[in-house]
Amino acid sequence: MSITGGFFHLGASHHTAPLALREKLALTPEKTAALGARIGALSGLREWAVLSTCNRVEFYGVAESSAAIDCLRAEFCALLECPSAELNAAIRQTSGLDALRHLLGVASGLDSQMLGETEIFGQVKEAYAQAQHRGTTGPVLNRIFQKTFQTAKLVRTHTAITEGQVSVANVAVDLALKIFGELRAARVLLLGAGEIGEKTARAFQSRGAEALTVASRRLERAMELAQALAASALPFEHAPGRLAEFDIVVCATAAPGVVLAPEAVAATMRRRPARPLFFIDLALPRDVDPAVAGLPNVFLYNLDDLAKIAEENRTARAAEVARAQALVAERAGALWRRMEPLCGGAPAGGTRWTEAARHPAG
Amino acid sequence: MLSVLTDRQWLWIAAGFYLAGFVLGTRAVLRERRHPRVAMYGVIAAGYALQTLGLWLRGQATHGCPLGNTFEIFQFTAWSATTLFLVVGATFRLSLLGYFTSTLMAALTLVSLAIPSWDATRRANIFGGNPWLELHAALALFAYGVFALLALTSLMYLFRNYSLRSKHLGGWFSFLPSIIDLDHICLRLLITGVGLLTASLAVGSVWWLRAPPGSVHAVLATVAVWLAYAVALGSRLRGRLIAQRFAWICVALFAAALISLETVDHDRRPAPANQAVSLQP
Fold first, then answer.
1. In the annotation, is A82 catalytic?
2. Which of A354, A349, A351 is nearest to A91 (CA)?
């Protein structure tokens, strides 16, 4: 069925566009403002909002005719100076109930690269807030976005789609929460200044950790990273002797052998027996001797342990997809029955795929 | 209205509510879902209200604190632990504590109700009209209630510790509170329990100085329990007793304290015929 107008969705996501193309499509605030100026002059586009994340650029709107949507697409191509053939190959366009179901699925994390992630919910909220600020929302989008947020919350609370972390860094943070309850008072030591260590440190900071120290065999690199993380730096050789000052130790060095032996950790625990010490060993070969795990009040997780938990969580989330999709479909259907008369002329369930849209959203 | 049912019947219904809390929590655990906290709190509160009623009726009939036999002691201990859970449990913000509390309360109350011999006779006027002695006993049993809750939080600590060490983090383990939260609460409960038992012994000792107790075993048992908990507290504060060993000891000490209650009550059994009151229908 062809699209004639009404409520629509138009855009590209990680399902249809490779990273290189998504980089071209990404809308900075300046580009969004420029696009707003161009679109504002379009006749027939009653309402619109744009969602731009690292994995998708999608327009949601209400158009009087398909011509208005085509104009929007053309303006988008022109703004980005992207060949329309390349863009057309990646763009997916739906309308009516399909578009609504898509938006609800996106906000619920069902369409995300990392299934069930919740960051997208905030991004959809932000997209809506910006559209409101621009004055490009109206009765249809206002209602639809409000219901979208309700549905996303419903999916989150009634299914396990968002439960459990699926990245190694976030799994490590979750484990720390199971030990320390909250991270504000926890002191984190990062051994090694590589990428994975930095990601993990940032994950800890994003969940409330305030006291972060970086130690690296190259002190200047440690200081550089410490500055980037608003943390403090420590000479690497001082770290084993000062372990007692920390609660969480993220080990991610490129050292060829064990950096922390059981004797050193046992000596540390004698100085702070009542408070647990959590080692996250992300290094290969491992930085922490496995025998450390046998010490009282010491918890040790290595890369394999974390990856296994992440995989289990991914599997558990995948098992919830059908339930979540059913919930989204039910809510979308109920909402569409009320919204259809307001949309004016949108054919229910109309969808058009561009020729090369290879991977429909799951 | 209240006399429609006997005290034991009210206590049976109260035990039924605690059991309902256990069933509610078990159902949620088996489904790997978080149990409804408000519903759990409501069920326990209902059980507590009915248990209070049952014990009040028993107290009215016996003209004093109902601590005259093993049945009453178990009921009073369960009641004390539930009081503490309802008053301060919510501030602990521990998921699953309600489930664990309802489970222990169901076990204590149902076992005491299911063994008729525990409530066949009771010593009448066991405190000889001495309110200080009554206060001593009530404080001691309230301390035992605190230790019951301490045993529960220690058990939760052991489960959390096991889940982190064995790397089994899914299912109902995911609802357990953090190691640090549990450890802090265990310590606070231990301090409270030792404080209450110390106060109880202090009150009792004033009376014992005036009139040496007839039941030396009861005093020794209570002092032994107090000493064991006090040593555990001292060791914990000095960092000598930590982590799972501390939790195991708190669980073991509560089991020992329950057994000691039997000793305390046993000492009172050879009562003169004119003081023993049959409660069997």
1. no
2. A354
Q: How many domains does chain B have?
A: 1
Domains and CATH numbers, chain A: 6-161+320-353 (3.30.460.30), 168-312 (3.40.50.720)
User: In angstroms, rounded to a whole number, what is the distance separating the alpha carbons of residues A129 and A139?
Assistant: 14
Contact: A180, B183; criterion CB under 8 Å: no
Alpha-carbon gap, residue A268 to A247, rounded angstroms: 11
**Angle in degrees, 0-180, between the axes of helices B7-30 and B97-114, rounded to the nearest 10:** 140
Contact B247, B186 (CB under 8 A): yes
> Can you give the residue range of the structural domain that contains B26?
2-278
ipTM, 2 dp: 0.76
> Model confidence at A62, in pLDDT bands (50, 70, 90)?
very high
pLDDT of A101 > 80? The answer is: yes
A81 sits in the region (left: phi over 0; alpha: psi -120 to 50; else beta) called left
Q: What is the pLDDT of residues A6-41, one digit of tens each?
A: 899 999 999 998 888 888 888 887 888 888 888 877
Angle at which helices A195-206 and A168-180 cross, to 10°: 50
As a whole number of angstroms, the distance between CA A253 and CA A245 comes to 20
Report yes or no: A193 and A206 within 8 Å, Cβ to Cβ. Answer: no
Subunit contact B180:A175, Cβ cutoff 8 A = no
Name every chain B residue with its beta carbon within 8 A of the beta carbon of A178: 160, 163-164, 169, 176, 178-179
CA–CA–CA angle A84, A87, A88 (5° rounding): 80
**Residues in contact with B166: Cβ distance below 8 Å, sequence separation at least 6, in sequence order:** none
| Cα(A222)–Cα(A210) distance, integer angstroms | 17
Cβ <8 Å between A296 and B170? no
